[in-house]
Structures are given as structure tokens and as C-alpha cells.
Amino acid sequence: MSLLYEIANGLRWNPNFTAGDVEEALKAIAGFGFMVQVPTFELLRKAVEIAYSGRCTVYDAIFLALAKENEGILITADEKFAKKVKENTVLLKDARL
Questions:
Q1: Rounded to whole angstroms, what are the CA distances from 74 to 18, 23, 69?
Q2: Exposed/middle/buried for residue 19 (C-beta within 10 Å: 0-12, 13-18, 19+)
């Protein structure tokens, strides 16, 4: 669920998007069939570890912890975050989708 908040907020601050554009984008994303995962205590514990070792927020670290838990990678546009944590991250600009 947090991912949808992140996407909505990112689009909200894009000067090229109206409120209607954001709503349409979220409707399209909802159709992708993303799995919504409620954070467990163990996932939060891992996020706290990442936050301390990577000197970042737990809010940012939760996404990396979730990617690791699901044996995936985190694609992020946040270059500072990617440099801090290094592992399991790919910058959006470098991603081959």
C-alpha cells in the first residue's frame, strides 16, 4: 500500500500532472495486479537494521527490506538513498524494464 502513496505523491509534485492525471495513473497501476503486503514485525526489524546501517529513514528502508524479503531489487529514483545502501538497488534511470 505504501508504494501507491509514494507513486501518488511523486506524481502530485510533477508539474505536468493534474489531479485527474494522478487519479488516472493510479487506476492504471491498480490494474497491474500488484500484491499488497502488510509489514510484519520481522520486516520492520529488517528495515530498522537497514536504516541504521545505511544511515537512512525507516520509511525509505522498508521498501528495500521488502525487496530483499521477496528476493527482488528495489528500483529507485533516489540517488542518495541508492548510494547509501548500495545493495539490491538499481537507479530508475539505469533500469532496463
A1: 27, 24, 11
A2: exposed
Write down the domain spans for the chain: 1-35, 37-97
Work out the pLDDT band at 75, boundaries 50, 70, 90.
very high
- Other CB atoms closer than 10 Å to residue 34's CB: what's the count? 11
Beta strands in the chain (DSSP E): 74-76, 89-91
3-class DSSP state for residue 91?
Answer: strand
Q: At 86, phi and psi to the nearest 5?
A: 60, -55
Task: Summarize pLDDT for 8-25 with one digit per residue, the tens.
Answer: 998 999 999 999 999 999
**CA 14 to CA 93: how far, in whole Å?**
17
